[in-house]
Amino acid sequence: MILPYYLRLLCLCFATFFVVHALSWLAVRSVAGAAVKLAEGMRPRLSSRLLFALRMAPSALTLFIVLGFCIPSYVWLEPDISGERVGFACLLAALLGASVWAVALLRGGASVARTARYMRVCRSNAVETAVGQDSACVLVLDDDVPLMAVAGVIHPCLVVSRSVLGALSEEQKEAAFRHESAHQISRDNLKKFLFLLAPDILPFVSGLSSVELGWARFTEWAADDQAVDGDRQRALSLASALVKVAKMGVRPTPSYLLSTLVDDDRDLETRVDRLLLEPAYAEKPLRPVVAFARNAALVIAGVTVTMLLWPGSLGGIHRLLEHLVQ
After folding, report:
1. Cross-strand bridge partners of residue 202
2. What is the pLDDT of residues 66-91, one digit of tens each?
3. Contact between residue 8 and residue 318 where contact means Cβ atoms under 8 Å apart
């Protein structure tokens, strides 16, 4: 197929994204199980950060390559001719690359729209009040459905049903609010949104669910730890609050972009046990992780600087793109 200059560039960008993203996605998929197992021996906050970085790595790395090398090499070295033939393999890769991005953007946009509608309903049917020792403002829903969650991305808001407020004691409410505040401080809803925007290897093919589920589990543990902050009495209060809210009935969340006190009861027993029995974490697994991250960052930085300073590097990338086009 004969394409003009800028359409050929767009085709190359999507094709390059698909090829590089697929390779990096497969690499992450191959180490996902080991990474989740390694994260179990680390402190939850570090575990959640590790898995978040692992999940976002394919997209971040591929966008860096496309924006930092693919586009500059094409614009600087490709002659501006009226049209040039693009091969079937390049067109197919470009179509797949555009498809995975379209699915991801639609998925993220739909979640934002659902969250926005939900927040409008909450604000129209709720009473804004200040609760807790820090006088945090929350939306109190006059609803029997048990709910306590941080909702939204840009300006997340704490939403709680009146039934939950009535069921919890003052100590339990304080511990529960501290848990939700930890989600808010960590911007966990924003991270969920980025997960939705991260393309899969193929449209509607999700093979990194173990990383996302592991991240969600460790995020809840980290919020529990931050809420308790080493206070034994607060740990007991939070544990009893979790059990009490779970007994009221766990319902599916109305939107992706919620961080609830009790999302489901699959991990409830483990969370309660952690609060009642102080966990012991091995510190040794952190050393190889830190060393690997430091060395990888140095290698990537060195390769990037070398390629940017060496004029022939863009020429090599341009020749690779020429092979991809054919």
Report:
1. 205
2. 887 788 777 776 666 666 677 788 88
3. no
